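2024-03-11 09:14:02 DEBUG pipeline.ingest accepted 1 chain
2024-03-11 09:14:02 DEBUG pipeline.ingest length=171
2024-03-11 09:14:03 DEBUG pipeline.predict start
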Amino acid sequence: MQVLQVQLAVQADPAEVGRARRWVRSRLLNHGVDPDAPIAETVVLVVSELVTNAVVHTGSPAVLRLCFPMDGAEPGAGPGPVGAADGVRESATVGPLRVEVADASQAAPAPRHAGPDTDATNGRGLELVELLCDRWGWYPDGSGKRVWCEIGADAAPVDPLAAVDWAALAQ
């Protein structure tokens, strides 16, 4: 199986998270993925969380990489089917899309469960990654680490309120 890899260098600035999201949307569109498709929404959210973690917790630059498994054809190439509503060719993806973020910290990522505090502004990032991705993990990479996740084409739509335990919050 062939894999198309694209990557973006991200500076140690929280404003870079927005740039990473825009870049991912552009790469997905170039790959033939409808920007309103559930997988696109999921990938953008996961990238936002992983890049935010890398930038905020390390204070150093990071590298974002998308890995598209391919069937041997170029994305959008050839006479493939075209979506009627948006004119975007169907993707040549044959497996899960992989997202990787490499940073300069050797500390293992640790999911924290933020609990019922609805005013909390952090602590849910890796929990979201865990819920939205088929698989995720990390490994040492040079003097830092690489956090990765895989998102299947059948990704569920992003619904941040779906997992809320409303009964527990009401107590």
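2024-03-11 09:14:41 DEBUG pipeline.report The CA atoms of residues 21 and 47 lie 7 Å apart.
2024-03-11 09:14:41 DEBUG pipeline.predict end
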